[in-house]
Design a protein that fits this description.
CATH architecture: Up-down Bundle
Radius of gyration: 20 Å
Number of strands: 0
Largest sheet: none
Order of helices and strands: HHHHHH
Helix content: over 70%
Distance between the termini: 30 Å
Number of domains: 1
Structural class: mainly alpha
Oligomer: single chain
CATH class: Mainly Alpha
Number of helices: 6
């Protein structure tokens, strides 16, 4: 074994890559679960609302679009983490990348659940009382920001 290989293997255990991969998987899986839940739950509200007010369907699709954006956050982080894998991977970076994946993944899951619940009740309420529309949109924006916070933390951890 060469001298450079011995030094490289001291802080590059084989499991370090595993933690990075789990971080990438966590990022995409949890954000996609949140986006899917938000889309499904909001879709139920849209379907119920559209029976009485079919003209409001395009206006009510905003929660579905916002839920879909959450999955993009996880995709971005997962691609960044997967692209950072090298032959000699330090355990420090493995744990950082696991944390980055969990940060964006779990915050995306929470935001997706929030968007689903608010979107379901919001589109039904806005169909009955149009003055509620702006308030519902503001609540949805604040729910989306939860996932954006996770993305910011994940990118910060990735750059360390």
């Amino acid at each position: 074994m060469a001298e450079g290989d011995a030094e490289a293997s001291v802080d590059t255990p084989p499991y370090a890559v595993f933690y990075c991969v789990i971080g990438a998987v966590s990022a995409i899986v949890f954000t996609t679960l949140g986006a899917a839940y938000g889309t499904a739950k909001s879709g139920v509200g849209i379907a119920s609302m559209s029976q009485k007010h079919p003209e409001l369907i395009m206006k009510a699709i905003i929660p579905v679009v916002m839920a879909g954006i959450i999955a993009i956050y996880g995709l971005v982080v997962a691609v960044l983490l997967a692209g950072s894998l090298t032959k000699f991977y330090k355990s420090y970076h493995g744990f950082l990348n696991l944390s980055a994946g969990l940060a964006v993944g779990l915050s995306g899951l929470a935001a997706g659940i929030t968007i689903g619940v608010v979107g379901d009740a919001g589109v039904r309420a806005a169909a009955e009382q149009s003055r509620l529309f702006v308030g519902i949109i503001l609540i949805l924006i604040f729910a989306e920001v939860l996932a954006l916070y996770g993305l910011i933390v994940a990118i910060y951890l990735y750059t360390k």
